[in-house]
């Protein structure tokens, strides 16, 4: 028995070893290149510092870009609520098997396709700009938030609902007075968490042409304006930290 | 309750259980884990369905309180108590506490006063201690207006002082208010101190029925460790 255990362990280690050697080769990992390239990185950093703080050409467009990014994240989150709620309710346990499987598969598909891919598709449909970003976020977010919501609904304690059923309450009364009070705070908390994530995603979407401050970062890199890029990245840092603190504070109050 | 039978798969949990709880009486069901006590209560309120047998509640529906209390912790105490009276409300007045009618609120307040917690009406249910929450759950059951109160291990999660308080409340509800109270307990001492009658279940059958004062240690051993007692 122990011999077999050792044998299994040896096989697992060997397979993992081979996989890593293969991965090392495929990704062309080369510590030497990293060491040789330190000069390039140093130059990059030297050019990025100090950040360019010119109001008209950099700071003002940057702030407008941040607002656009925030707006994409906001609409991408709120406009996905109806569909996410629908799929979440259909995807809770105890439903008809076909409805359950169907909604779970739709949500899995939407989750599996990255928002960047959706963005590229929508850019070809509606052109470059923030609207493509909003559409991309909606699609991806319905999959993720729907899944999170249906899990939250599955997890609530059935006890309070049972207690009301025992007293003779009808199903709608049970839902309104036991199920919803238990589940709504969790749903709102997850919604805020997704808003937080979506604002960050909308930055990446900007890189592929969906507007906002991400687009400005991409542009400044392509024009070798690294000092402008530094300003934008600092702004992004402030934006992300602000959104994160806000959603964390609201979630704490809900909890 | 007559000839109650219940099986889960091939495991028989209740094998022909008959008992009766009269108004004004506190009956305690004792027995080891898996002896069928909780299942018997759950059959009475419809949370489990009996395979055979007959259950009669002479005054309509029975109310029930649970070990895990099952209050909506985020709502305040009075709204939780009101929820016990939902069955009598039209849908339009019952979908959110703001719509609960005044007479239900007054009735709930009286129930809350009965369990000694009227001063906590506006507090969040989750902010109360375990013993207080269980008394709120009793108030919710009272607000249902039932004359039969079932309690499934109502004090198992409580400290001794809180447990005594809840048991004394159940005794009062039986003796002073004339309710029929049946409680599943795990502590033979509490049964001895508070119950009028004790029913002991073993492997889904009634092994003993006795006045609480006459419950002996041998009886208790027979319920919890039947292997050690000569038949």
Automatic annotation (TrEMBL), chain A:
Q: Which InterPro entries match?
A: MetI-like (IPR000515), MetI-like_sf (IPR035906), PhnE/PtxC (IPR005769)
**One short Pfam family name for this protein?**
BPD_transp_1
Mode of membrane association: Multi-pass membrane protein
Query: Which keywords belong to this entry?
Result: Cell membrane, Membrane, Transmembrane, Transmembrane helix, Transport
- Cellular component annotations (GO), alphabetically ordered: plasma membrane
GO molecular function per UniProt? ABC-type phosphonate transporter activity
Compartments in which it is found: Cell membrane
Record domain ABC transmembrane type-1: where: 66-247
- Could you list the residue ranges that cross the membrane? 70-91, 112-138, 174-193, 205-224, 230-250
Q: Family, per the entry? A: Belongs to the binding-protein-dependent transport system permease family.
Family annotation (NCBIfam families): PhnE (TIGR01097)
Name the record gives this protein: Phosphonate transport system permease protein
Q: What is the lineage of its organism?
A: Bacteria, Bacillati, Actinomycetota, Actinomycetes, Pseudonocardiales
From TrEMBL, chain B:
Signal peptide range equals none
Q: Which InterPro entries match?
A: AAA+_ATPase (IPR003593), ABC_transporter-like_ATP-bd (IPR003439), ABC_transporter-like_CS (IPR017871), MetN_ABC_transporter-like (IPR050086), P-loop_NTPase (IPR027417)
Taxonomic lineage of the native organism? Bacteria, Bacillati, Actinomycetota, Actinomycetes, Pseudonocardiales
Asked whether the UniProt record includes Ion transport among its keywords, one would answer no
Q: Is rRNA-binding set as a keyword in this record?
A: no
- Classification via PROSITE patterns: ABC_TRANSPORTER_1 (PS00211), ABC_TRANSPORTER_2 (PS50893)
Give GO MF terms, alphabetically: ATP binding; ATP hydrolysis activity
Protein's name according to its UniProt entry: Phosphonate transport system ATP-binding protein
- The superkingdom of the source organism is Bacteria
Which controlled-vocabulary keywords does the entry list? ATP-binding, Nucleotide-binding, Transport
> Which ranges does the record mark as transmembrane?
none
Q: Which residues form the ABC transporter domain?
A: 1-228
Q: Which PANTHER family match?
A: AMINO ACID IMPORT ATP-BINDING PROTEIN
């Amino acid at each position: 028995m122990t011999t077999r255990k050792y044998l299994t362990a040896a096989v697992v280690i060997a397979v993992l070893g081979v996989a890593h050697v293969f991965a090392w080769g495929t990704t062309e990992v080369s510590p030497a290149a990293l060491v040789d390239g330190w000069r390039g990185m140093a130059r990059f950093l030297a050019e990025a510092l100090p950040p360019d703080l010119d109001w008209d050409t950099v700071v003002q467009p940057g702030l407008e870009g941040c607002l656009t990014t925030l707006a994409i994240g906001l609409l991408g989150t709120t406009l996905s609520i109806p569909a996410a709620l629908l799929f979440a309710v259909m995807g809770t346990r105890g439903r008809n098997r076909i409805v359950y499987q169907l909604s779970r598969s739709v949500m899995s598909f939407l989750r599996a396709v990255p928002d960047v891919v959706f963005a590229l598709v929508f850019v070809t449909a509606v052109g470059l700009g923030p609207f493509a970003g909003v559409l991309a976020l909606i699609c991806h977010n319905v999959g993720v938030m729907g899944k999170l919501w249906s899990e939250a609904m599955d997890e609530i304690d059935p006890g309070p609902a049972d207690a009301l059923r025992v007293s003779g309450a009808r199903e709608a009364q049970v839902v309104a007075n036991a199920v919803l009070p238990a589940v709504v705070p969790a749903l709102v908390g997850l919604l805020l968490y997704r808003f937080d994530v979506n604002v960050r995603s909308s930055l990446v979407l900007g890189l592929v042409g969906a507007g906002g401050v991400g687009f400005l970062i991409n542009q400044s890199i392509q024009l070798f304006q690294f000092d402008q890029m530094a300003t934008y990245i600092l702004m992004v840092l402030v934006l992300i930290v602000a959104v994160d603190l806000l959603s964390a504070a609201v979630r704490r109050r809900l909890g | 309750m007559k000839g109650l039978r219940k099986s889960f798969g091939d495991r028989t949990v209740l094998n022909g259980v008959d008992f009766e709880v009269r108004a004004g009486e506190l009956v305690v069901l004792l027995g080891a884990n898996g002896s069928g006590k909780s299942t018997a209560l759950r059959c009475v309120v419809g949370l489990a369905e009996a395979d055979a047998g007959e259950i009669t509640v002479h005054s309509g529906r029975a109310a029930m309180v649970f070990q895990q209390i099952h209050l909506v912790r985020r709502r305040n105490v009075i709204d939780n108590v009101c929820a016990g009276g939902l069955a009598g409300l039209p849908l339009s007045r019952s979908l959110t506490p703001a719509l609960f009618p005044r007479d239900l609120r007054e009735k709930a307040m009286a129930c809350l006063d009965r369990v000694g917690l009227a001063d906590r009406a506006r507090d969040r249910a989750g902010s109360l201690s375990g013993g207080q929450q269980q008394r709120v759950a009793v108030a919710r059951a009272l607000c249902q207006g039932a004359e039969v109160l079932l309690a499934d291990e109502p004090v198992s999660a409580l400290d001794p002082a809180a447990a005594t308080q809840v048991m004394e409340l159940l005794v009062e509800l039986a003796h002073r208010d004339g309710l029929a109270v049946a409680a599943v307990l795990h502590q033979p001492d509490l049964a001895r101190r508070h119950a009028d009658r004790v029913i002991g279940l073993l492997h889904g059958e009634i092994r003993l029925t006795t006045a609480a004062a006459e419950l002996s240690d041998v009886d208790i051993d027979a319920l919890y460790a039947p292997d050690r007692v000569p038949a």
